[in-house]
């Protein structure tokens, strides 16, 4: 029994399964559980087997201890962003002590220490870039690398995102080794099954990844030649017997068996006789032979007829029951050999594919060092949350079950929806979810739909409740109706609330074939969208109070062919649309073949056949007449040859992308394509292919290698590389045509499902079989009927899940295209509708005809408010006219405002520079040390000063050495910087910047001295930089501060009033400015509860430590206006602390300023000051004048008001 999930009471330990139906807030729930883990929140569990136990994890966790796994990079990025946003919301709630969010408000009540909670959330927010949110493959890759010893992972491996070329190579190698040596008859038999290695790969491609697949019957020890010889002998025996017994066959069947007379009977005998005499027929067996098997003959025996007794009839039964062939043997051997060749190739090239990552980690966890590896991973990640768990396969589940199964001090939270398990084609396995559901006793559900309107939720609930087992496997995938908590608005058509579920029913004939059904429904869909948009322009089609827009409408389809049908009908009505799919590759599109022809012509412009083929492509838009005229006009033909020679030069010099862009420009292809139907799609594909080819060419050796790659790519089954997936052709808000798979996780205001009665029965006997250890995946190569029936049952179950996904995408209304669809050309009025998902629900799995469908739809409309049944309009309306813009008489508008010319981005050096204009401020270098020197002086300064021995005083002066010193302190780990590692790091930096490596020892001594020098803070114990752990410091902190019309006199007066160092300095001189102040603080660190800013200075003040005394430092600070620099940096740090630090108070938390003149340390060189509270708050007020209120409202305590 599943328990309703309460996010704040959910136990955060042990193995638990969460079923999140569509639209019920799965990601919101994950983020809520993540918050609790960060905060260590959890009251006692009140009921169930864990009653009396705390629901919290054993301790608060950091973001690096909470593993969140999902299946795609896009989902990972979205999940990370949603969690980050939720942490930010929660932190602000704890800082303010209140929240309008129900979950956060309850957390505020139940968490006692708000200040501690805010600090934990702040730390988490800062660390989110390091959070353990990964794809499952990313997680495996990370574990293998981090635990290389235990996992046996190779170092320096290359990751393959697309191994399709490797697969084809392995199959081709197998093909050559296995089939080249065989005799002609066997070779012909192989070619009859698969004309090429690519064809063989297409059949077995889906099986290669599954090493646990069990093929039946098991392969024996027989050779291919022996199998072929024995199989042909069986067929030949039947042939010879038939020819010898033909007269007896006639005697025993003619007149004794029903309908075995006349023209049909003679035709059967003739076809079988032709076959029996054909020595080259191979494994082909005519279907007519089935009529002469003993079983069929007995079933059709006439009353009073003589029972056939010829032994040949039983031999025919035996032959057809176990058809002789070599297909199963080849596939079994090929799968083993190809897998082995692929693995050997990858090992030799130090490559890993996605599947290798899973296999290698799974193997490592099951090895002799597996338990040690499990302990290490569990120690790193105390909690694992698996998002979209319904899409796991057995290997993936085994990995996490081994890691966390039976360990109650950790947590494995499996979150998903079995009703949305729709990725069987890429290895996802619903039976894995079922096994996990049986293994885990703690089940929870999310029961409220936040997406769709209440009426639409009720309609979908009612539809799925009509069938006894709506998802076939009722015991393991129950349908639990959800409550509606979604949108309150509705679709209004001409003033009335529209139905939420429109059931279109085609009538007028007993059955419809698939082509007729799809054509009519595509036309109906386009016509209805036309009607909605027309009414919207008249203010009569509204969602709430807003007119329906094209971007509100989605048409969901199964295949690209279905999508094109709809897109064509919409185009006829002048309605623009875009097509989205996550399965179609750009290499499968016609533009890929056209570009291949163009590339061939570029390589051989003088070869007439290649050039003619290129010019005949749709990209050039030349008809037959134009091509003929071009070929007959010698001058024009030479011009075309010359044009392609120029393209070849561009290709050789600048690459294939530059060449294709040159073609695009010269032939004005963008304009011509955009003017044609589907022009945006074609232009997008063209540009996409150019980028893809440019990327691929960088990995290949020359143009011919690229031609070979593209030729193979367009002729093979597409790979899985994300770079090849079709791109969206337009960002405009158009009607969206989306595959159901692509739509998962998305929502659309209005949804059309025009082809929901289409289906394709299983044609491969691939199915699952339960045993004591779970479920095994079986491939029955004999093609047995019961195996195929089981595979089709699993196909129907997945189609039902696809239908659920499709029906739960809509927010306000959904349209269904229904008809009594039948495959084949028979005269029966029975339909195949019960084999489709929608027919299974409506007809409760029973076969029926058009009347059965009509009765079911009538009952549905009667039982469920908001469901409407009717015939679709098949009339094609006139094209939709362009929207009229209300334009008055054209006239030139005069600008009567004023441009604010003093808004700019500046830095401290821009404000400090005397008498310079704005442009200098905008481009001011944040710089390191403002030693003003001429170019000649700077070059001279970089020459070493003659001295008895190298020292920090003789180290070159100027901007370049200063940059090196800053880089050095920015890139080292303060705690561990010492010895040989530090020496190597310094030597690397010296070499990179062109300095002699003899300075390495000097710089190492100086760095260690600086790190070990105590810095007196004035607040207790001094601090050494070496004492600062990474989490207590921020290097090179960039900031932007708003400036609201700051004047030089006002800033001068404020600084001189509150800072003694500024009193002795000249007044600032810059024009009034507003905009943003940009800067970089070298180091911000925390010590004993206070925050400090620190700046490194490489200024050369003299050749001895005495030259870096306090008075000398103050003089340098004044000369270079470093006083203004630390004042502005103090303001930046103050605002940052006020924003990020709960309970911030300037006097309590602001520690002060350090300027380290590196050449004078450790004896001197340390400038420390504590800017006054009045100065910093005064600067805050000055800079806030005219700025946004959120930044301007700062109280006298220095915290946000």
TrEMBL record:
GO terms for biological process: double-strand break repair via homologous recombination. It catalyses: Couples ATP hydrolysis with the unwinding of duplex DNA by translocating in the 3'-5' direction; ATP + H2O = ADP + phosphate + H(+); Exonucleolytic cleavage (in the presence of ATP) in either 5'- to 3'- or 3'- to 5'-direction to yield 5'-phosphooligonucleotides. Mg(2+) binds at residues 966, 1082, 1095. Residues 1-453 form the UvrD-like helicase ATP-binding domain. One of its GO terms (molecular function) is exodeoxyribonuclease V activity. ATP binds at residues 20-27. Its cofactor is Mg(2+). Pfam families: PDDEXK_1, UvrD-helicase, UvrD_C. Binds 1 Mg(2+) ion per subunit. InterPro entries: DNA_helicase_UvrD-like_C (IPR014017), DNA_helicase_UvrD/REP (IPR000212), P-loop_NTPase (IPR027417), PDDEXK-like_dom_sf (IPR011604), PDDEXK_AddAB-type (IPR038726), RecB (IPR004586), Restrct_endonuc-II-like (IPR011335), UvrD-like_ATP-bd (IPR014016). The keyword DNA repair applies. GO terms for cellular component: cytosol; exodeoxyribonuclease V complex. Keywords: ATP-binding, DNA damage, DNA repair, DNA-binding, Exonuclease, Helicase, Hydrolase, Isomerase, Magnesium, Metal-binding, Nuclease, Nucleotide-binding. HAMAP family: RecB (MF_01485). A helicase/nuclease that prepares dsDNA breaks (DSB) for recombinational DNA repair. Binds to DSBs and unwinds DNA via a highly rapid and processive ATP-dependent bidirectional helicase activity. Unwinds dsDNA until it encounters a Chi (crossover hotspot instigator) sequence from the 3' direction. Cuts ssDNA a few nucleotides 3' to the Chi site. The properties and activities of the enzyme are changed at Chi. The Chi-altered holoenzyme produces a long 3'-ssDNA overhang and facilitates RecA-binding to the ssDNA for homologous DNA recombination and repair. In the RecBCD complex, RecB has a slow 3'-5' helicase, an exonuclease activity and loads RecA onto ssDNA, RecD has a fast 5'-3' helicase activity, while RecC stimulates the ATPase and processivity of the RecB helicase and contributes to recognition of the Chi site. This is RecBCD enzyme subunit RecB.
